[in-house]
Amino acid sequence: MGRGRRHITKPKDAFLMMLTVLKHYDTWEKHASDFSMRTSTFEKLVGKMIDFVEPILFSHSIRPVTIKEQRDRQMVSACTLRDRCQVPAR
């Protein structure tokens, strides 16, 4: 037996609610009423889902860049900029 009431919202539904909040810019009250929930409950549910999903999405979507890659890109962009800026001699 746990403490307090359990959510009747399934994890898939909570994920869908989170995606809806991220896609459609609106107030918490509007989103909560769309899903027939109280605003504070809905806000907590979406916040917990974002906390749960964020490390997974981060590890799959964002690749760390090494210092060598940054320097190589900087050198390439400096060379292209210098080539564009040179005015041919007359």
What does this protein look like?
- This protein is mainly alpha-helical and 90 residues long.
- The protein has one domain (11-85).
- Helix content is 69%, strand content 0%.
- The protein has helices at 11-23, 28-34, 39-61, 67-85.
- α1 crosses α3 (39-61).
- The termini are far apart.
Quick summary of this structure?
The protein is mostly helical. The chain is built from 4 helices and no strands. The protein has one domain.
Shape: elongated
What oligomeric state do these chains adopt? single chain
Largest sheet: none
Write down the Rg.
24 Å
Structural class call reads mainly alpha
Give the number of DSSP strands. Answer: 0
Number of domains: 1
Q: What portion of residues is helical?
A: 55-70%
Q: Any low-confidence stretches, pLDDT <50, length ≥5? A: none
Strand content: under 5%
Fold topology:
Blueprint: H1 11-23, H2 28-34, H3 39-61, H4 67-85
Helix pairs in contact: 1-3, 2-3
Keywords:
mainly alpha, 4 helices, 90 residues, 69% helix, 0% strand, elongated
